[in-house]
Structure formats: C-alpha cells, structure tokens
Specification:
338 residues, alpha/beta, D-Maltodextrin-Binding Protein, domain 2, 3 domains, six-stranded mixed beta sheet, three-stranded parallel beta sheet, 41% helix, globular, binds glutathione
Length: 338
C-alpha cells in the first residue's frame, strides 16, 4: 500500500518534472505569493480560526518564507492538506511548500523527488497509555493493542521496535488524526503512538487529561522538516538559510523586539552580516539584503518561533529538548554565516 502510494507520487512527479522549467523562486516572485500546504485543526502546529487567521509552528514557517521573499509575512496562500493529500499536493505543484508535521526520512528524500529544510523540529516517536494500565515504559507493552496513524513513519517504526525487542502488539490503524485519538480516548486501544508534542496537545484538550501517561522515552527519531520539490536550488537555499538564519539570530541574541535597534546600532560584524547591514548576501541569493530582518520581525528568531507556538510562551509548554541550541544542551545548530 505504502509502496503503491510512493509509486503513484513518483509518477506524478515525473510528469511535473517534464513540464517544470523555471526556478520556483522566480515563479513565486512573479506570482506575488507562495502557496503553503499545512493543517488547519491543531492549535500550535497549524490552525485556522473562525476569523480566518492561520497560526502555529508549521504555519509560521511559511509566513517567514513570505517575509524572506516579499518582505512581509502575508503573501501566503494556505491550503489545508490531509495526511493522504500532502505528498501528491506537493508533487503536483498545487503547493510550493509542504509544512505539516512531515518527518524527513531517506526514502522520502530520495524516492519522492522532494528536498527538506532543516529539520526544524527534532522530536521522536512516543507513546501515550491509559494510566489504568499501570504501564510506565515500553517493556511493559508486550501484547498491547496500539492505535497508529496509517501512512506515517510511526507505523513502520512501531513495528520495527516491537520486532527488535521480540515483543508482540496489535496495531489498530486510523485514517486521520481525529479518528486516531477518538479510538484511543474511547478505549479501543491500550496506547496511541505519535510524536510526543502531538500527544501532549491532544491530551491537553481532554477533560480526562490526568488519566493518560506519555512515556518519557521515545522509540525512534522523528526529525520533522518542511519540504519542497527538487529542482529549484535557489528556492531551496533561500529556505534552508532562512532556517539557519533564525538559529543564528538566536545564537547572537537578535530578537523580534530588538532587531531594529540591532540594525541601527550593533557594532558586532556577525550581527551586521546576518541583518544585511554589511554585505550583499540577501541580494546575491535573489532577495533583499534585509531579508533576515523581515523574517525575524515576522516570526522571531528560532527560539521565539518555537516558544511562541509550542514552548514556554504557548499554552502547550512543549520543552525545547533537542530543539534547544547546541550550546544549551540541545542539537540545534547552523553553519557559519559568512
Ligand atoms: N511525522 C509523521 C506524521 C506525524 C503525524 O501523525 N501528524 C498528524 C498530525 S498531528 C497527522 O498528519 N495526521 C493526519 C491527519 O490528521 O489527517 C510523519 O511524517 O509520518
């Protein structure tokens, strides 16, 4: 089933590739907006409110991309795509960027014809169980019934883990996130698997939140990353270095609140280069020299981008974990900005 889906997507990409010619960055600039595939139902990740405002971590990545290209975060057309639609929507050209809790893996990178940015959210695969089971660790899950979302990396990793440990389990597959969590909260499985931030978000919505335990450990890596189609190196590099620029801004203490002041008066050459006060990095890449100023004004440095959507300044309070700067004990870093 998975293989068949990969083949269909690969065939669509083949068609798209034959008709594609121009570098996407030029096409987006000529069009005057970019299109971004995301989700519309999960506050903190991708959410569309009743007033028509989009918000969340995955949404803000696209607003930042708009700021990097157009100088303003609002030149984005958001498209809500389901788990099943996300890769075909990117492959067919319906969207320019897929920013929707997608994990970067070797098969997605090398067989789908996509390139990933970042990763910009390094997490893993966790498990939430009913407290009544008494389980606190994976070792106690032999023979369990586990709800899992079809078509995600979590399906494969769950099977891999149990096989490697010589344990058995019964998977109960769901077609979408809402169905998955309804099945779990309705007691149709002992546990549900997904990346811990999503487990925490879903648990927080429940009045029975304290009846569910999220295990401390993870059974696999899941490094999530926005994706674009291959074949537009300037678009790819702009987004990749935008991500690095947000990390560099955090390293250098440049924030949404102080960026104007930094432009006006910082004497630190590293800050001056990042913000385009010195040099022509932005123009050389096909945008303006102050592109990172616009990105930081739109969504902040990486730390602000994370904390405002998911972390300390959000209702979700998801710890930075691996997404803290390397110097703070996390794994987040960027190559040199020079
Ligand atoms: N990162 C995983 C997927 C993570 C995941 O399951 N995300 C949920 C959102 S919380 C999802 O895509 N749900 C599908 C849906 O709700 O339609 C992957 O790339 O395979």
């Amino acid at each position: 089933m998975r293989r068949r889906l990969l083949n269909v997507v690969a065939a669509v990409i083949g068609l798209a590739a034959t008709s594609a010619s121009a570098e996407l960055l030029d096409e987006i600039k000529a069009r005057g907006e970019l299109t971004c595939g995301t989700m519309d139902y999960l506050a903190g990740i991708g959410f569309l409110d009743d007033a028509g405002n989009w918000s969340g971590f995955d949404v803000d990545f696209c607003k930042a991309a708009s700021a990097a290209i157009f100088g303003t975060p609002d030149k984005v057309k958001f498209v809500a795509v389901t788990g099943a639609q996300k890769f075909p929507a990117l492959a067919s050209g319906e969207i320019d960027i897929l920013s929707r809790s997608v994990t970067a893996t070797i098969s997605r990178d090398t067989t789908l014809g996509f390139s990933y940015i970042g990763p910009n959210m390094m997490t893993g695969q966790g498990l939430m169980v009913h407290k009544s089971t008494g389980a606190t660790d994976y070792d106690q899950m032999d023979g369990a019934t586990i709800c899992v979302l079809a078509g995600t990396v979590t399906e494969r990793y769950l099977a891999d883990y149990f096989k490697a440990k010589g344990m058995s389990f019964t998977p109960v597959a769901a077609e979408n996130g809402d169905q998955l969590f309804s099945m779990y909260f309705d007691n149709r499985c002992d546990a549900v698997t997904m990346e811990p931030p999503y487990l925490a978000i879903r648990r927080q919505k429940m009045s029975t939140a304290e009846e569910h335990v999220i295990f401390e450990d993870v059974i696999a890596k899941s490094y999530e990353a926005p994706m674009i189609r291959e074949g537009s190196p300037r678009f790819y590099k702009l987004l990749q270095w935008m991500h690095y620029g947000m990390v560099t801004a955090e390293e250098l203490g440049v924030t949404k609140a102080n960026v104007d002041e930094m432009v006006a008066s910082s004497t630190d050459p590293r800050v001056q280069r990042l913000l385009g006060v010195e040099g022509t990095i932005g123009a050389d890449m096909g945008t303006t020299n102050d592109w990172m100023v616009n990105v930081i004004k739109a969504v902040g440095n990486y730390g602000e981008f994370y904390d405002n959507n998911l972390g300390a300044n959000s209702p979700l309070q998801v710890p930075r974990g691996l997404n803290a700067l390397l110097r703070d004990g996390g794994a987040l870093t960027a190559p040199g900005w020079q």
